[in-house]
Amino acid sequence: MMLEGKTALVTGARGGIGRAIVARFLREGARVYAADLTPRGSLDAHDDDGSIFIKQDVTQEVDAIAAMDRVNAESGQLDILVNAAGIEIEKTIEDTTLEEWNRSFAVNATGTFLTSKYALPLLRRAGKSGASASVINFGSYDGFIADPGLAAYCATKGAVHALTRAMACDHGPEGIRVNAICPGYIDTPMLQSFFTGDGSGGGGKSIDQLQQAVRDVHPMRTYGTPKDIANLVNWLASDEARYASGQLWVLDGGLSAQVQQMKL
Does the reported pTM lie above 0.70? Predict the structure, then answer.
């Protein structure tokens, strides 16, 4: 097992991608703290998966402190941090309110900052133990290019990309690796919401037509699954990735490799 003896904390752990990451970490032998707003999360699914639930609103400093205090008391160090909590608002900047803009940054960017900030002492302790600690942030291919109607989301993911590089430079000497995964279209509740929202630019198409159009625009003619993301997260968390740091790992089925993409 690739993560045997390691302790991990995953934010957004009860969402589609978060649950897949938690499940993979558990199979690989890790002790996993699953942090989210509720035990059942956005999928409204059972939470008896063997992980340890922590109630955490990533926008709240007090919650980040409390989460790390608990990990410290129960485990003594943290080997892996995955900042997977995120939201998406489907609007142009003209239609986005200041409250929505600030909320997007609070969850996607500030949440990554706060959780990482208070995890650092525990990660630093793990980094001194002989093997590197690993932080995995969640950017997006939308941090490089843009889908229509996702202005605030794109801006937050660009911020996460820059923060990831800065963290890798600052904390690499302490034995802490920092990377970001940048997914494309992944089959999650967030993607299904996009299909029904104004940002999809669907032009009256049915959900099935939009889903097929998304598949067809990919060179691989499909979009990804949470398990695809969890596979890469698992590798980056493991000692096999000991020399991987400061990178933005795009996982999008070849979508952003194309010269021109269909507008959906």
Answer: yes
